[in-house]
């Protein structure tokens, strides 16, 4: 299991301040959703906390160790990362593409072994793409490609998983499948962080939410603590019908706040 602590994290993009003094603690066994309007800094936050965007200020520690002191391959074995909007350029089979998730475990001249193949097959099964194993990845639909890329991240076998907009291009059924998969990963003890736009999915599946606005963390807590009508008006500029007490929590935008 792995934990991650963010302290007063600030970051810039193209010399423009994007994150401002964000602090949070991410724990194993918890599915944490990062939500907020477009341009709030969600993707920058997850990239900065993985060292992919340099920090202007603050620290990120994984199990108490500063992320800057962790070798890239070791970090890749610890937290698997699925960025948004990945484009496939090479006509690899799905099985070969998912095998790339095992690279952090392989040396420069190493070959994929039996343990790697088991991890790949298990990851494809969990992402519901095992039946696509011999298809060419560049010929898949957008939803199929999204699930294949998720399988590649799962194939790493890391105790942490960070996914940025994993529901993009997925039909409603596969959106549910992906969220249930992420919830199962968390229940099994993994640290799971997902950047989400769908507030109903965030309310239904996430244990905790980080709400960003203007690069600042404006609320943190359970969905019931974060998704209040007042906060949705302030942050998203919307009115919404909110039902978080039933067996299927729901947040339905009903209009723009005038």
From TrEMBL:
Part of the ABC transporter complex HmuTUV involved in hemin import. Responsible for energy coupling to the transport system. InterPro entries: AAA+_ATPase, ABC_transporter-like_ATP-bd, ABC_transporter-like_CS, P-loop_NTPase. GO terms for molecular function: ATP binding. Pfam families: ABC_tran (PF00005). Keywords: ATP-binding, Nucleotide-binding, Translocase, Transport. SUPFAM superfamilies: P-loop containing nucleoside triphosphate hydrolases. The keyword Ligase does not apply. Residues 4-239 form the ABC transporter domain. It comes from the Bacteria. This is ABC transporter ATP-binding protein.
């Amino acid at each position: 299991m792995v934990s991650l602590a963010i302290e007063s994290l600030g970051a810039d993009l193209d010399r423009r301040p994007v994150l401002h003094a964000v602090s949070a603690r991410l724990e194993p066994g918890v599915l944490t959703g990062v939500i907020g309007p477009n341009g709030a800094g969600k993707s920058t936050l997850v990239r900065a906390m993985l060292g992919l965007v340099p920090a202007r200020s603050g620290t990120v520690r994984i199990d108490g160790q500063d992320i800057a002191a962790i070798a890239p391959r070791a970090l890749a074995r610890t937290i698997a990362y699925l960025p948004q909007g990945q484009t496939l350029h090479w006509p690899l089979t799905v099985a070969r593409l998912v095998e790339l998730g095992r690279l952090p475990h392989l040396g420069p001249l190493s070959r994929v072994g039996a343990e790697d193949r088991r991890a790949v097959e298990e990851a494809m099964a969990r992402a519901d793409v095992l039946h696509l194993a011999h298809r060419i990845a560049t010929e898949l639909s957008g939803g199929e490609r999204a699930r294949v890329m998720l399988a590649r991240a799962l194939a790493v076998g890391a105790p942490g998983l960070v996914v940025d907009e994993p529901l993009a291009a997925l039909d409603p059924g596969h959106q549910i499948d992906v969220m249930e998969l992420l919830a199962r990963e968390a229940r099994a003890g993994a640290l799971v962080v997902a950047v989400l736009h769908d507030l109903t999915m965030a309310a239904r599946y996430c244990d905790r939410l980080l709400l960003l606005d203007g690069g600042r963390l404006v609320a943190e807590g359970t969905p019931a603590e974060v998704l209040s009508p007042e906060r949705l008006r302030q942050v998203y500029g919307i009115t919404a019908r909110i039902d978080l007490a039933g067996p299927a929590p729901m947040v339905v935008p009903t209009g723009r706040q005038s």
